[in-house]
Amino acid sequence: MTADSAHLTSIRDHIQKAVDEGTWPSAQFAVARHGEILAFESFGAATDSDRFCLFSATKPIVASVVWQLLGEELITLDTKVAEVWPEFGAHGKDIVTLEHVLLHTCGFPNAAIDSEALADRGTRTAAMAQWQLEWEPGTRYEYHGVSAHWVLAELIERLTGQDYREALRVRVLDPLGLDRLELGVPKERQGDLQRVVVTGEYQPEALEAIVKRPIDVTVMEAYDAWVREFANDPNLVALGVPGANAVSDAAGVALFYQELLHNTRGLWRPDVLADATGRIRNTFPTDASGSGAPANRSIGLILAGPDDGATVELPTDGTPVQLRPYGGCTSPRAFGHPGAGGQSTWADPETGLSFCLLTSGMDRDLVRDFRRHTAIESLVPEWA
Fold it and tell me: Hey, where are the domains in the chain?
């Protein structure tokens, strides 16, 4: 690999173009292999000392503590949440298992907690106990944006006796030396965080061609505002919403994924880690696409799965959109998790590469954003 390779130049050019056009006010990417950073660069308003909100790319990081608890036999995938937390079993939730929660099949995707209740554990758990099922757990998949990981946080606290943020720090981040990766950032340490903004214009017709349902722009606007709050509200950033707003630079995330590939510190029991990074347990159709493509979720990650050539043609211009994640050029064994606003994190056991791309601009044109990511990420295996 050489720093001036054509593929690396193309990666830079794609990112710089998004910055120059104002789509991404700032961006950062990193590539790692063999536990070392191969490339780490910042663009636009960001410097290498800045950090970004990971949004849902937070989810595997929190789940990594649960994998430890599985390895320590403090809980099993078949354990019902109510066995650890009896009050949670109200309203028929007594049948929800840990596996359901990790696979987003637990049946309460839209459950929420008032923002005033989030900071107090007692108030928060009381609110969660009152959640009601929208469908029978284990019968379908629907992405649980924040609800499932609040359940994981409470399980972590009950099983370890530690605050979920402290457990993550002591059990995973400190042993790996990842001091720049953080969940729950005190206000006095938030000065290096890139503020998230919405850019571009909504293209509902193109998006409808992919998801096969009408798109309500007012709903999208409300969602964008809700998501930005996780990144920009100092109180929520200080709280640390599990599954929504860990912060890091791109290098820290790429190194976290290197450890998922190699487990050099022995933080996870090998069979549990192999399950988390290599076994697809959720093949229900994804709720994000009308193509019928499977969710391909493990207990905390999304696997690339086989390349079946799945694409969707847009009625606007007839061009296909590649649906396979991570650029479409990784092996079927690649695993990772995206985050709102264009955050991308993954690793590929076939090449040993891990990749992270973080941005501060949420492009309203989701199809364009997906194509941009595909163009960038497909170059990574070719370059490295």
Answer: 6-383
Least confident among 19-28, 82-91, 363-372: 363-372
Distance CA 150, CA 86 (A): 16
Closest listed residue to residue 59, CA positions, set 243, 236, 255, 303: 243
Rounded-to-10 torsion of CA 360, 362, 365, 368: 40
pTM of the model: 0.94
Long-range Cβ contact pairs of 12-17 (< 8 A, separation 24 or more): 12/41, 12/43, 14/372, 14/375, 14/376, 14/379, 15/43, 15/357, 15/376, 16/43
List pLDDT tens digits, range 131-149. Answer: 999 999 999 999 999 999 9
Say whether domain 6-383 belongs to CATH 3.30.70.240.
Answer: no
- Are the C-beta atoms of residues 30 and 250 closer than 8 Å to each other? yes
Report how far apart, in Å, the C-alpha atoms of 299 and of each of 63, 257, 275, 337 are.
8, 15, 7, 12
- Which residue has tokens 């606290």? 157
- Which helix or strand (DSSP H or E) is residue 303 part of? strand 302-303
